Amino acid sequence: MTKTKLCVLIVDDVAAVRSYLKQILLGLGVPDIVEAADGAEARALYTRLQPQLVFLDIQLPDMNGKELLRQFKSQNQHSQIVMVSAFSSVSNLKDSIAAGANAFVVKPFSVKRISHLMQPYLN
């Protein structure tokens, strides 16, 4: 997959988190990044754009991110979903992977962690 074809959706209700992650991705050369602040907005963007990669917060104001993950995977099994949470519990990790997540990142995340996750998409 080339950089120019990669579309990334960031779903988080905290604007500062979305902005920080977007800046990291832009710095890595990802040109096509869209953001959603809640589940309803994320669902609409996902359906319209079919992003290859989604960073999805577990706790959203209008729905559980794990339920949204299941919906995304039912629409497109090939989408790569990275669950993001401020809570690093084993149950969050296990539940996310069981629901189809490809990776799990704990907030606050580092540039190094995101860079590592992005390597398969940037080469």
UniProtKB/TrEMBL annotation:
Matches recorded under SMART domains? REC
Keywords for this entry?
Phosphoprotein
Organism, by scientific name, is: Alkalimonas collagenimarina
**What's the protein name?**
Response regulator
Q: Which Pfam families match?
A: Response_reg
The organism that produces this protein has a lineage beginning with: Bacteria, Pseudomonadati, Pseudomonadota, Gammaproteobacteria, Alkalimonas
Q: Which InterPro entries match?
A: CheY-like_superfamily, Sig_transdc_resp-reg_receiver, ST_Response_Regulator
Give the matching SUPFAM superfamilies: CheY-like
Keyword match Phosphoprotein: yes
Keyword Phosphoprotein assigned:
yes
Describe the location of the Response regulatory domain by residue ranges: 7-122
Modified-residue entries (4-aspartylphosphate), positions: D57
